[in-house]
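#lab-general

N.A. 3:47 PM
ok so I finally got the sequence cleaned up, no stray characters, all 438 residues accounted for. can someone with queue access submit it? mine expired

B.Y. 3:52 PM
send it over

N.A. 3:53 PM
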Amino acid sequence: MSLFDTRVPAVLLRTDRNPFHHGTLGAVRSLGRAGVTVHVVADCADSPVGASRYVHRLHTPPPPGASPAEIAAVLRRVAARIARPAVLIPMDDACAVAVGRARAELAPAYLLPGLSAALPERVADKAELAGVCASLGVPHPRTLLPDGPAEAEAAARRLGLPVVAKWSRPWLLPAGSGLRSTVLVREARQARELSRRAEEAGSRLLLQEFLPPGPGRDWFFHGYADRSGVLRAGGTGRKTRSRPRGAGLTAVGRWVPNTEVRALAERVAGELGTAASSTWTSAAAGRRAATTCWTSTRVRGAVPALRRHRRDGRRTGVAPGPDTSPRAGGRGGAGAGVRGGELRAAQCGAAGAGGRELAWHAADDRGPAGRCGAVGPACGRAAGQRVRRRAVAGARHRWRGCPGRRRRRADGAAGRRAGGQLLSPSPRGRSTGARRRG
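B.Y. 4:20 PM
back already:
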């Protein structure tokens, strides 16, 4: 028997410009497999997500960089088309902030959590989140908010280079600006130059103490907390590969129990009293950096638990569900950061403990994997070119170290100087010039 009232549809909202956002597909599949009608409001008509058999309908998304008012207007049009209450699930920070601001006008058409409009902005803003961690006594890297280029340079020196520079609201970064949400600053003048672009970035620059990377030190928590802050689904895991390397999105991760990280997540969720699906990442180095992006689909039960609780909570006030903890030892891979060997292993991996799952490939939903190659030939070609360049560079390196090659190269140069005549014997009895001649 299904735990879901399949008469209530789900609406996934995303404004992120990444067409290969694997989290959206994870949510689509998790809900679709449970029999829920899934509507997607995102720019994914030509992306792998649009090819999923579990997408009921794609809706035109807000334009890039849309304001909260524009996002709310799009959601009202979508609600009019659906013509019945639906569970609304924001898939990125910008959408969570917009929905929080427009909750009063959206509530009649969507089932939304009962949280304050300011809370999504408070935890999505990286500078505000550092303040939240400090107020709750949650260990986190030392964070400074410089006021101007001169202070930024001084702050970088005070923290000790290298430092981590972050824009507090990365979803406001303009497309094509070349600005990244997170940068490792190795020279103090870099912090000064970044601070000069704060107006262009649309948010404050913060500098954080750099925690040196190391094996088994990059942990995360994915899960769902109800309106009282009780975690209904989720678990801890360890990031083993990311893109870009050493920072950025998880490319390969493994579910590993960690009671300390889970206790931190439970504590923060309980204090904030959030009703949202969230992602917490921490560097296990004595001090932890906590960030949230509000959505997680690596726990198969997280987004379905969110939907089930919003639907059942409206009727009964409580929505008990099954144990949706992840399988310890299971692995997940996504995007271009997965190595070829890991990709093949993941495709062949068996379900169960220690099994692997990919972002695009699924036996019951083959469309996204096929379209991934169709809509991303440039990405595929670029990846193939990188692999070939590395292979050629490695071969050249080994070739340069070969004594025979150096001798043959000298023979060839001497032969060219002498008009192609043999001046010194080669391993085959002829110079390079002689071999070229005949």
